[in-house]
Amino acid sequence: MTVQPNEITEVLNRPISQELLARDLTRLAYVAKDGTPRNVPIAFTWNGSEIVMCTTKNAPKLPALRNNPTVALTIDTEVHPPKILLIRGRAELDFVDGIPDEYLQETSTYEMTPEQRVEWEAEVRSLYHDGMVRIVVTPNWAKLIDFETTLPSAVEELVRQREERQRG
Fold it and tell me: Left if phi > 0, otherwise alpha if psi is -120 to 50, otherwise beta: which for 147?
């Protein structure tokens, strides 16, 4: 199923999508080097057109993403009914010197005192002294499920079938 860029933009610009894109964690799904699926929570930022995640240069996901850059992301809430934003795209790897600005943005919501923040940043700069990797995903598919105006496609089908039964 081909999704047009304007359809993706429309989904991502919805108020609920914007709320979800302002959260601090996504679940990144990819295919590992051994061919099995992986799904890892990872901090992210949304810059208006891309999801940016940062990781260590020695992360096991990097060889897998080089081998198969196709990924899926899930950003959701923990309340009922859940709000779920599903995104698919291709991961581009950007090796950078130092700490990417996005990494510091991703972690800005962490609850810390100003003193703890200074200590934490010093630790981060010490640990990642030779740089990090930005994993950049431009969405090529997106779906918002809010269980009020949008449902999973299988549930939508069940609703249609029920309506047909009730009419018949």
Answer: left
